Amino acid sequence: MSIVIIGGHDRMVCTYKEICKKYHCKVKIFTQMPGDMKNMIGSPDLLVLFTNTVSHKMVHSALKSCEKTGAKIIRSHRSSSCALDNILLNYCSGENCMECLNNNKIDSSVNSGHQKSYQNSHH
Question: Residue 69 and residue 36: Cα distance in Å, rounded?
């Protein structure tokens, strides 16, 4: 599955890549707007917009590019590693991601680790 992340913080790029790797996703990350972004986005399966850290012009350009491809678009005000992990956990649950449904590639440690951290943070 391919993902494009628009926004976020420059210092988090490596963390975003590691999270996407856990879910066996190819990722392109744009924390700043390159001159030819609309041609660089391609045709992802999922577009993640971190709305707190991105300009309106960048959002508009990304949405216009993905409009033609039919990519699923998820907006998040937060751009933390937990926010991205939750987005991918929900998206890659099998209902949305055909690759996950067919191949069941997500490590069981990803789901069990998330559930443990969720349980610990809500007790």
Answer: 17
